[in-house]
Design brief:
Elements: E1 11-14, E2 17-20, H1 42-55, H2 60-71, E3 74-77, H3 85-96, H4 101-106, E4 118-122, H5 126-132, E5 140-143, H6 154-166, E6 171-175, H7 178-182, H8 186-200, E7 204-208, H9 211-214, H10 217-229, E8 234-236, H11 248-265, E9 270-272, H12 280-293, E10 306-308, H13 311-324
Parallel strand pairs: 3-4, 3-10, 4-5, 5-6, 6-7, 7-8, 8-9
Antiparallel strand pairs: 1-2
Helix pairs in contact: 1-11, 2-12, 2-13, 6-8, 8-10, 10-11, 11-12
């Protein structure tokens, strides 16, 4: 089977040469001229994304390799009202060994250390997750700033970020104020995200746009660019709580903005689809999108994450089918 991993030095080739991770986006002063004339042709987007599933496929060993790579990019997530510390600790155990040892052995991947990209939880469980993942190198991501609606007072949002960082969160998933996008108040959006970025300190910031709420692809493109100007290390589609979450169409609009920002500044920014990426077939389409639009480096967890919970179980089922020729029930692949 092809080895889907880069060397342990985590040096990846971007268009401008080698880059050593982890990457931070320092941001830049707000420049409204970057938004002038920024429009997205929805019909063209739909034609482009339709080709991903229809014309781009991988099979057999290659598919297994791509799915193993996808596992390493999952932000394994639990964001339910009935979360408990026990559930979070079980999730962390799964993050440490997301694929059964016998499957890795059969795939010839037993020597590789495969983990998920991160574990994502509410602030309440950050300390427990950090403790459960001690020594694993797996970061804890905390959703913050009044997730999922983002309508708590701004000072409280900053304090929530600071509290999660103090408890050990290495990544903070913030939600933007949708009103700023819907009313075109781009300066306010920039200022908000800039302050979130400062509150994060050493922690990486993922800006959640809630694409299902801000409606148009043009809004999504402009909001993506403003968040990157403000210093977002990742831009993320959704909270997973909206009526419509990640889609290939909104993802294309966002990754094209990532490409433009990188071409203008030389700074690579990560991308995270979240909500609705629940099976192996769909995640392959997102991987193809990243590879074709941004390049090989954006298949690594430093620049690509998938917010998911049930996805891991389906990937493990597909890997078992590849090994044995038989599908197993979902309950044989529990996440937590």
């Amino acid at each position: 089977m092809p080895d889907p991993f880069l060397s342990s030095s985590s040096v990846v080739a971007l268009r401008g040469g080698p880059l050593i991770h982890p990457v931070r986006n320092p941001g830049m002063p707000f420049d409204a001229s970057w938004l002038d004339g920024l429009r997205v042709n929805q019909s063209a987007v739909e034609r482009r994304t339709a080709t991903l599933a229809a014309r781009r496929t991988v099979k057999k060993d290659a598919q297994a390799a791509w799915l193993l790579k996808a596992v390493t990019c999952i932000d394994l997530t639990t964001l339910s009202g009935d979360d408990t510390e026990g559930r979070v600790r079980r999730l962390c155990a799964k993050a440490r060994q997301p694929v059964r040892a016998d499957l890795l052995e059969a795939l010839g991947m037993a020597p590789q250390r495969i983990t998920t990209g991160a574990v994502c939880v509410y602030h309440r469980f950050v300390a427990a997750a950090v403790d459960a993942l001690k020594g694993s190198g797996i970061p804890v991501a905390a959703v913050s700033t009044g997730f999922p609606a983002g309508l708590t007072p701004h000072p409280l949002k900053l304090k929530e970020i600071e509290a999660s960082v103090a408890d050990g969160a290495a990544e903070i998933d913030i939600v933007v104020t949708r009103e700023y996008v819907l009313t075109g108040n781009w300066q306010a959006l920039y200022d908000e995200v800039r302050e979130f970025r400062a509150a994060c300190g050493p922690a990486h910031l993922k800006a959640i746009l809630a694409t299902g709420d801000i409606r148009t692809l043009s809004n999504i493109a402009r909001a993506s660019m403003v968040c990157m100007m403000a210093g977002a290390d990742f831009i993320k589609t959704s909270t997973g709580k909206e009526g419509v979450n990640a889609t290939l169409d909104v993802s294309l609009a966002m990754v094209r903005m990532i490409r433009e920002y990188h071409e203008r500044t030389g700074v690579p920014v990560g991308f995270k689809p979240a909500g609705g990426v629940s099976n192996a077939k769909s995640v392959l389409s997102y991987q193809m999108l990243m590879k074709e639009e941004l390049g090989r480096a954006w298949l690594e967890p430093e620049l690509f994450r998938i917010g998911a919970s049930s996805l891991l179980a389906d990937i493990e089922r597909q890997l078992e089918h590849h090994v044995s020729g038989r599908y197993s029930a979902f309950n044989r692949h529990p996440v937590a």
